[in-house]
Q: What sequence folds into this?
């Protein structure tokens, strides 16, 4: 699936200001910076998820396929099918089975034929590297899974409707090293089909997984560029100080 460039142009959004970024398709884009600098706020604004949590407001535009996602008549439900999101802590629906968790987003537009639904659920679980672990207990409780499995389940649920963009808000922050490695491996594989934007506090993770890196500080975009350049020859002193651990 070929995805489109996502462009964000902000005058001001809550604690984030003066940001203009383009996210080319089929790449991983890391957002880094100290806590409270606006990374997650910015990320949530890309699919208007902030409207559910902080009720923020935006000046500027976020363009997907040339259309402003804040434009009149834009369906927020449809937008979030196109720009999916996985959060810091796994968020499986506790009363739903593993199967129903993956199928949840597919049911919003009406009932699909069972055979088609089965196919999509299996494909999504395979892409999330979870199928072999759960194929014999699809009707079992999602919350009986381990933390790493739950996060991969949430990823399967996100990719089931075939979004164009996947937003990851510190997706490995609550996982052990093995779970973290699995998610990072998936990110590398999934960028073949999706554009991925990831917020992370882990500098090694950003360096390992991303094609571009953007450094935020105090609500401002300080520097953006290819990950290799940002981590080896940053152009801004603040960026260099953060990457080398002198603050943050």
A:
């Amino acid at each position: 699936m070929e995805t489109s460039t996502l462009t964000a142009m902000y005058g001001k959004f809550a604690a984030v200001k003066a940001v203009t970024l383009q996210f080319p398709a089929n790449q991983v884009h890391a957002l880094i910076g100290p806590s409270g600098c606006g990374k997650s706020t910015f990320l949530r604004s890309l699919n208007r998820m902030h409207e559910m949590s902080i009720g923020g407001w935006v000046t500027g535009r976020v363009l997907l396929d040339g259309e402003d996602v804040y434009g009149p008549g834009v369906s927020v439900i449809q937008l979030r099918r196109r720009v999916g999101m996985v959060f810091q802590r796994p968020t499986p629906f506790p009363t739903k089975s593993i199967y129903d968790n993956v199928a949840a987003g597919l049911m919003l537009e009406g009932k699909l034929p069972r055979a088609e639904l089965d196919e999509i659920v299996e494909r999504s679980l395979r892409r999330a590297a979870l199928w072999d672990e759960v194929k014999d207990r699809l009707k079992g409780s999602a919350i009986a899974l381990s933390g790493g499995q739950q996060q991969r389940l949430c990823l399967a649920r996100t990719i089931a409707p075939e979004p164009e963009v996947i937003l990851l808000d510190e997706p490995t922050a609550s996982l052990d090293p093995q779970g973290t490695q699995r998610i990072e491996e998936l990110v590398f594989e999934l960028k073949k089909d999706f554009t991925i934007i990831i917020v992370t506090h882990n500098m090694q993770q950003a360096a390992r997984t991303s094609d571009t890196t953007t450094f935020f500080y105090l609500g401002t975009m300080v520097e953006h560029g290819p990950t290799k350049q940002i981590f080896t020859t940053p152009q801004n002193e603040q960026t260099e100080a953060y990457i080398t651990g002198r603050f943050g």
The first strand starts at residue 6 and ends at 13.
